Amino acid sequence: MAVETQSIQKPSPPATPPENSAARFGTFAGVFTPNLLTILGLILFLRIGYVTAYAGLWHTLIIVLIANGISFLTGLSLSAIATSMQVRAGGNYYIISRSLGLEIGGAIGLPLFASQAISVAFYIIGFTESAQSIPFFQQIDARLISSAICLLFILIAWIGADFAIKIQFGILAVLTAALISFFAGGWDTISEPILEPAYADGISFWVVFAIFFPAVTGITVGTSMSGDLKDPDKSIPQGTIWSIVVTAIIYIGVVIWFSFHAPDRQELIDNSMAIQSISIFPPLILAGVWASTLSSALGSIVAAPRTLQAIGKDRIVRKWVSSNLGHPTEPRMAVLITGAIAMVVIWMGDLNAVAPIISMFFLNTYGITNLAAALEKLVDNPSYRPRFNIPWYWSLLGAIGCYGTMFLINATATVVAIIVTVGIYFLIQRRSLTRTWGDVRTGLWFAIARFALLRLDTKEISAKNWRPNLMVFSGVPDKRLPLAETANWLSHGKGIVTFFQIIEQDFESGREYAQANRTEALNTIKNFIQENNLSAFAEAEVVPNFRDAVLTVAQSHGIGGLESNTILLGWSRTAEGRMMQMSLARDLYHIDKSTVFLNMDDQKGFGQRRVINIWWRSAGGNADLMLLMSHIIRQHGSWGRAEIRLLRVIEDESALEATLIHEQAEMKKMRVEAKPKVIVNADGRSFSQIIQENSHDADLTVLGMNLPNQDSIEDYGEQLDKLVGSVGTSLIVLSAIENIMIFDRED
């Protein structure tokens, strides 16, 4: 069989990736400090009192421990994945998209970016709230103050991360001084602690938790700087874990100290700056509030554009959003978009309204990050070799904690968040974006398939679970559409179809030439399958001899109980070809493979697809397979209105009624709708003549064939050709499963 080929060139080895010229930050400056400054944000100074007033000391500690437990498990998962890959720009988005795939990465990355952008406004609103404790700022609209700060931060991010990183050290010094001032005060005024909760209408444990949770969401800021780190797979785990541990200790200390020095509950609820009354030097608290809120806003406005830029580079959103607008490293277009979102939120929301939204977005991101780490560990791809190893159940516990907490906070908002995520996933999937990396989903399907195959291999095939696993020797399938169409009908979601092209060629022309032919044939079949939306596999083999290749492939194809059991071929138009097919069918029978030939009437085709005639002898063997195939074909939509007719020839008219009753009883036992018809051959007509007379209106005729005798293969092939030539489109069946009843008959 001649096949056109193109010259094949050896691919050149991949170029060594250049060193990242943008990498300029270490663990402390690039991960630990941005994380710490974002975590120790406005919740620390402006909302701890509010949380304590409603939840009391014990419940507040539980809230802090749950929130930090979730962030700690997420930090472990994040660290495990980060140390198993070369993390580039995009942080969490990059990690998730390279682990779970582009669609899931985008479905999480876009809400992650939105939450980071909203966080900018969240922290700036917090700054403004504290600033208005000063009489001068009370005269100015809070939104104008917030807008001015937002514009300043957009300018800082526009200048670049280097400038932002330098500023953060000064902010860290102020924040440290504020904390020292807080813990140094109140030693002579220890009072009765607020231990028990006092929730009000609409304020529950989980509502308070949702308000507090943004306090621990800063662990992704350092990860978002991954493209700017000197050694991401070292800096991300170390900086992330240490920032979580240090800030957790600080929060626990602040909660305990606050509860023993707090004024009455109502004062804590009404006065967001009540923390000043404890400090040894109150102005430092105001400076700390400003430092913490502004540092968190700064961290978010540096992180969010990098997430969006990575999403844009992967073409999930328009590529222009990833433009640097002339700068060598800074994602300036994404900075402008982030700033615009923050400005909109500033003019729309307040702290308590914005906090739960941020909580939902971040919990969803954390949940997926944990799930990715758990799947990577469970699937255990050889390529997953993290230097920071954790048990899979820790990550799974983190995922359960995230989604469980989301439902407890607000079940409706959780469902909406999941719907939005799933919606983005399907939108991205429909775009069929190309990717150059693998992901854990392939490994997951492999693990599931391996498990299923091993289980299936231990089970015997019975009547209840027999199904046609077809090998279709179709050649180039788009040139033999009826054969491909028939295979599709015969499987109809119940079996497995493999389209095979056998390429007859000697190997003297060289390995590359043979491989090129095989690759071209495979791609042609795969394209055909995809274009016609078929559920099938593609295979192609280069062999010196067609007949021997079919026998070899039929025996070797398949694994774990999914070996092919039925071979589908087109009926040959030549005497030589039919002789080969008869010999092949005989040999296939001896290796327990059923053979089905399709003889296509080029003029009539499949007609109206209204009548299927089965020429029946008795139950078992060919008859069972013929009936099952007809039943499966009728289940396809294009044959849905077809009538199956069972035709049987008898010689004695006196047996007519008994035969008809017997056939009806057989159909009832087999639970197949078919109309029996008994034909009495009283005048000695030939079988060929009877078939021709009774199948002229059939759109498909199904015939059984005998096992060809080795001595009369050629004659038998010609007899069959004469028979099928008079009945239109037909299937010729030789079942190799005579000792297995395909139908599980009712007793």
Helix content: 55-70%
Oligomer: single chain
Distance between the termini: 52 Å
In which order are the strands of the major sheet placed? 3-2-1-4-5-10-9-6-7-8
Alpha-carbon Rg, integer: 36 Å
Query: Could you report the average pLDDT, rounded to the nearest whole number?
Result: 82
Question: What is the number of beta strands?
Answer: 10
Record keyword descriptors for this entry.
10 strands, 747 residues, alpha/beta
Write the layout of secondary structure elements.
Layout: H1 27-39, H2 42-82, H3 92-100, H4 102-131, H5 135-138, H6 142-159, H7 161-184, H8 205-212, H9 219-224, H10 232-259, H11 265-270, H12 282-313, H13 332-346, H14 351-379, H15 392-409, H16 411-430, H17 440-457, E1 469-473, H18 481-491, E2 496-504, H19 511-531, E3 537-543, H20 546-556, E4 566-570, H21 575-590, E5 594-599, E6 611-615, H22 622-635, E7 643-650, H23 656-670, E8 675-680, H24 687-694, E9 700-704, H25 713-724, E10 730-734
Parallel strand pairs: 1-2, 1-4, 2-3, 4-5, 6-7, 6-9, 7-8, 9-10
Antiparallel strand pairs: 5-10
